[in-house]
Amino acid sequence: MQSVALIDYGSGNLRSAEKALVRAAESSAAGGRVEVTCDPDKVARADRIVLPGVGAFAACMSGLAARSGLIEAMTEAVRRRGAPFLGVCVGMQLLATRGLEFGETPGLDWIGGDVRRLETNDPRLKVPHMGWNDLAIARPGGLFDEGAARPMYFTHSFAFAPDDPTDVTAWTEHGVRFAAAVQRDNVAGVQFHPEKSQAAGLALLARFLEWRP
Questions:
Q1: 97-146: per-residue pLDDT in tens?
Q2: Are 155 and 111 in contact (CB under 8 A)?
Q3: Which is the catalytic residue, given 89, 129, 156, 174?
Q4: Does residue 60 have an active-site annotation?
Q5: Residue 193 annotated in active site
C-alpha cells in the first residue's frame, strides 16, 4: 500500500486534514496509508506528500525550516524522486518564490511567483475571504474531473500569483480573479480547503491519491 506523508510542522488543522485523507483513501482505488510526520527519513521515502497550512506565510515557512532536514527530505522526495505533492492553503502558497505578508519571506520556489494580499474593488466583499466559491477550470485533467466546478471552501487573506499563468489549473473570484489551484509536473497546490469542502473536497483528495503525473 502506498504511503502518504502529511507534514506536521506546527501549522495546525492537521487532524481534519488527516481524517479527510483517510476517508479519501478508503474510497479510492489507490488507497493509502496516511501518516502525520515531520520525520525527514519517512518524508524522503513517502510515495505521496501533503503539506497543509494555516496562518501567516512567514510563520509557516519558519515552522517548516525549523524542522531539521525536513525541507531537504521534501526536496529529495518531490523534486528528485518525483513523488506527487499537494500543498493546501498556505501549503500551496509556500510553493511560491516569496511571500509578501509582514514583509518579504522566501518560499520554496518550486513554482515561481509571489503571494500577495487579496485585494477587492467591491466594498461589499470582505477580506479575509471566507466561504464557498465555484472553480473555473483552466487545465482539465490532473486533479480535476468534470465535477470539479462544484463549490470549494476558502478561508484566506493572501493569494498566490504565479509568474507563468499556465501553472494555474483553476481560477476563482472574490472581487478579483485569483489562482484557486496550481500545478507544475508532480507539484500541485490548492488555495481552498478540501477537508472542509465536503464531497467535492474528498473527491479531489481521492484523485490526488490516484494521480500519476
A1: 999 988 999 999 999 999 999 888 777 778 788 899 999 998 888 888 75
A2: no
A3: 89
A4: no
A5: yes
